[in-house]
Write a structure and sequence with these properties.
By secondary structure, this protein is of the alpha/beta class. Helix content is 25%, strand content 25%.
Length: 352
């Protein structure tokens, strides 16, 4: 039995691979949903808005290969027309023409469609929600994982951000001190992000030959993009808000966002039919306070995460542990495949 801690992209993918090899497993997930930092929400008029991971690019070959394997389509991010840019608080927002750049892509039907496809390939009773792991005990005959009850296993995969397991899970015997130290100083992808999305009945920006993009060095919105669906039947704008606003009330943040959008896009921006935001630093199973300031992607892909521990019975996953595009969906796919390959190889060796 393999216990996988976390039902995000890397954990689900590892489980998906193990299922195909008939290797028994269970996923223990603290949240009441699967997906982790992939969080697609149904807004008004059944408009999909991404409040978590959203975009990828052509170098993300691991993710692209998985989408091809699962027969999931994707489409290019709409960037036609002019964009708004505000260089400083003193300077007015101005319309600019975007330079040619490598396109970004979005998954057709929402990023959560990837999660749903992996999840649907598993047995539902092997994915246990609302199960917060508190302690992991390694002994001569296996592993005990303590959550709401005790789960017996041969191996454990930590498919959650390193900072979370380093600070929230008790290990017996203790993990090496250098591993714990680096894990606590590893930046968690998305932990500082605030995603915001507004849904509209009409794509007024496209009618005005605008891309829907907004870039601001002052905020509150720092990046904003067209978020219409591929079929161009649902309309939204979506992007990032400055993390410095996380301590404001919802009403204060919303008022600042609307004032910014009105001053940039004009009064049409006020005719939205839904407003959604997600402050990832308020997500208990994503954010954990750091003892010192961490740079974006700090210690992501560190070599210590590629080691196995407790006689190869503890394996470390999550996007932050990946040596390839760590901190992105592609990294989660890479490490999910790598961990599954290690377990499958060991399993086949034991059968000989």
């Amino acid at each position: 039995m393999v216990i996988i801690v976390g039902a995000g992209l890397s954990g689900l993918l590892t489980a998906y691979r193990l299922k195909k090899e008939c290797i028994p497993f269970k996923i223990l997930e603290s949240r009441s949903r699967v997906g982790g930092r992939i969080h697609t929400l149904f807004s008004a008029n059944d408009t999909l808005v991404e409040l978590g991971a959203t975009w990828f690019q052509s170098p993300h070959r691991n993710l692209l290969a998985l989408l091809h394997e699962l027969k999931l389509d994707y489409f290019e991010q709409y960037m036609d027309g002019s964009a708004f840019y505000q260089p400083s608080a003193e300077a007015p927002t101005q319309l600019i023409q975007l330079p040619n750049q490598a396109p970004s892509y979005r998954i057709l039907g929402g990023t959560a469609k990837l999660i749903k496809t992996l999840y649907n390939g598993l047995d539902e009773n092997n994915v246990l929600l609302n199960k917060t792991v508190k302690e992991i005990r390694f002994h001569e005959n296996g592993v005990q994982v303590i959550a709401d009850s005790v789960y017996e296993a041969e191996k454990v995969v930590l498919a959650i951000p390193p900072k979370l397991w380093a600070r929230k899970i008790l290990f017996q015997p203790q993990l090496p001190s250098n591993l714990i130290d680096i894990a606590k100083k590893t930046h968690t992808w998305m932990e500082d992000s605030i995603k915001v999305a507004l849904t509209y009945a009409k794509p007024f920006w496209r009618d005005a030959i605008q891309s829907g993009a907004l870039f601001s060095n002052t905020g509150p919105i720092t990046e904003f993009y067209d978020h219409c669906n591929f079929e161009q039947s649902k309309y939204a704008l979506c992007g990032f808000m400055s993390s410095t606003l996380k301590n404001l009330s919802n009403e204060e943040r919303r008022e600042r966002v609307l004032n910014q959008l009105k001053s940039s896009f004009g009064k049409n921006a006020m005719d939205f039919i839904d407003y959604n935001e997600c402050i990832w630093s308020q997500e208990d199973y994503t954010f954990e306070e750091s003892e010192t300031f961490l740079f974006p992607h700090q210690n992501n892909g560190n070599a210590v995460f590629r080691e196995s521990y407790y006689e190869e019975n503890l394996l470390i996953s999550s996007s932050e542990a990946s040596q390839d595009f760590s901190g992105y969906m592609d990294g989660a796919v890479y490490i999910g495949n790598q961990i599954a390959e290690k377990i499958i190889k060991a399993h086949r060796s034991n059968l000989k």
